[in-house]
Amino acid sequence: MHSDLDVFHRLTQLDKEFPGAAILTHKDGVLPPAFADLWANPRLLNFMEQILGPRVCASPIWNVRPKGPSASTPDGDIPWHQDSGYFDPASYRTMIPVVWVPLLDVTEDNGCLQVVEGGHKTGMVCDHLNCYADTWHVMLDESKVEQTLNVSLEKDVKTLPIKKGSFIIFNNLVPHRSLPNKSEEIRWSLDLRYQKPGLPEGLYGELPTITLRDPADPDLKVDWSPYIENRHVHQHKMTSGKDAAPAEMLDTTMTGPWMKQWRLVNSNRHTQAAGLALQGQRA
């Protein structure tokens, strides 16, 4: 369908005919070989070695993100958050830097990132709230940001437009968001995470880290087999307590254990699918 359109326009048309198609793309968490090759790219590992030390692992929370035009695919809008707001609290002391890679030039018009400079320095995870608008995304409790993180969401914000072929590195405590996509193109991006071995990985123990570099094994061949399975199947089971039926893989709701971690302030189809309800409301 719509094979005449390129990768930056096709999914928008599919989403118009099957609302939520972009969500299914995000949920298809099977790691393609090309993404694995980028994750283990020696130049990226050189960066990570400077941050994490000589032994570098892949952390199992990764994503391909199709951020469509906000007017037609609002699920792609991302509010202020820290990555640790989605992670297992056991991992809050683990440094989990992310490499954010856009697949086209990103600007203020098509949804580049904004970060809050210095927001990681207290080493704290601020309270988050469930869930933003009609999405599954958690959002910072903005009333507590200044007290907890010692930063301002007005004065300390940095906007980061970058060119295709560039990337942004930040850790799991840096508050960030993406701006609305006011263009007609899909803003595709990848986020690939790294950490030291032997530390909590953030995915509630469901998937392991994978060693990418170890000086004790200079000829290391990376075993990607744990990431071949769709990790969103694990998220579904962690939230619902049961395996996903085949038909549920076409379900355009997104659930995960982070939803039960933070106070519910907005009910929508994603929170209801997770069995959550506002006080006085049935799930």
From TrEMBL:
It comes from Elysia chlorotica (Eastern emerald elysia). Its cofactor is Fe cation. Coiled coil: none annotated. This is Fe2OG dioxygenase domain-containing protein. Pfam families: PhyH. Signal peptide: none annotated. InterPro entries: Phytyl_CoA_dOase-like. It comes from the Eukaryota.
